[in-house]
Amino acid sequence: MLKKYVTTLLLSSALCLSLPHGIFAQDMFDDRSHLKGFIDKYQDVPKEILLEMIKDDTLTDFKTAAAVNVFKKKYSAEAVSREKKRVEKILIRRLKDTSSPFVQVEIIGTLVQMDRYKYFKAMVPQLISKLNHYNNVVNEMAYTNLDQIIQSGTGRPREARIVFNTLRKILFLSRKRLATVETPDQNLANKLNLVRWSIKVLGNEYLKKLPNEALNLL
To answer: How far apart are alpha carbons 113 and 179 in whole angstroms?
Structure first.
């Protein structure tokens, strides 16, 4: 069932790449302000209320994403044993039922934070794919979650290989565009930062596996 969710997320991200960027500038500003507003508003909401909000099918995407964000930061590390399984079930059900990239990113980040061994391999490539989303707010959210996951880890080679191999595929598919880049934009810079981290863990010999166009930007 988890593989089905992953496939759906991949297809959704691929479709988004074909959409133009400029026409969404105002919408992206609104997305950022709306989401931050709800996150600030929910800071003092108790854990059980946040979980009920996540379960609520009538809640808007921004409210759901904000509830997940606050739960992740304040309570996800506390969930153990039976409660942990209950929370995972709630999150996976919501992930299955949502098409919102905002909710997807926050849930995926929370699941990996709760159990990185169980979810890292399946979920982190999905967060990396969101770095290609047409909405810059989704890009930022994905990178923030990836950075939090990396910073909270111990630099395991298994995890670094997953990050490296996923980004390597993306960079090879972008070779023509990379060849014309002189100064990376923020989105590309974030990808390159993740590549640098993975190489730091795995060793410089992995540089030989990257396209020359990417090496010139590292």
So the answer is: 36
Q: Is residue 69 assigned to a domain?
A: yes
Instruction: Give the model confidence (pLDDT) of 61-86 as tens digits.
Output: 999 999 999 999 999 988 888 889 99
**Residue 160 lies inside a defined structural domain of this protein:** no
- pLDDT at 23 exceeding the cut of 50: no
Q: What is the pLDDT, as a whole number, of residue 28?
A: 60
Task: Tell me if 163 sits within 8 A of 124, measured CB to CB.
Answer: yes
| Rounded distance between C-alpha atoms, residue 113 and residue 126, angstroms | 14
Count structural domains, the chain: 1
The alpha carbons of the chain give a radius of gyration, in whole angstroms, of 18
pLDDT in tens, 99-125: 999 999 999 999 999 999 999 999 999
Measured distance CA(211)–CA(84) in Å, rounded: 41
User: Which range marks the domain in which residue 64 is found?
Assistant: 2-118
Backbone φ/ψ region at 99: left (φ over 0), alpha (ψ -120 to 50), beta: alpha
Angle, vertex CA 100, rays to CA 82 and CA 110, nearest 5: 30
pTM above 0.70, yes or no: yes
Residue 26's pLDDT is what? 53
Provide, rounded to the nearest whole percent, the portion of the chain with pLDDT above 90: 79
Write the DSSP assignment of 51-110 as a string of letters. HHHHH-TTS-HHHHHHHHHHHHHHTGGG--HHHHHHHHHHHHHHHHH---HHHHHHHHHH
Residue 94 lies in a domain: yes
**What is the CA angle 201-216-192, rounded to 5?**
45
With respect to residue 18, please indicate whether it lies within any of the assigned structural domains.
Answer: yes
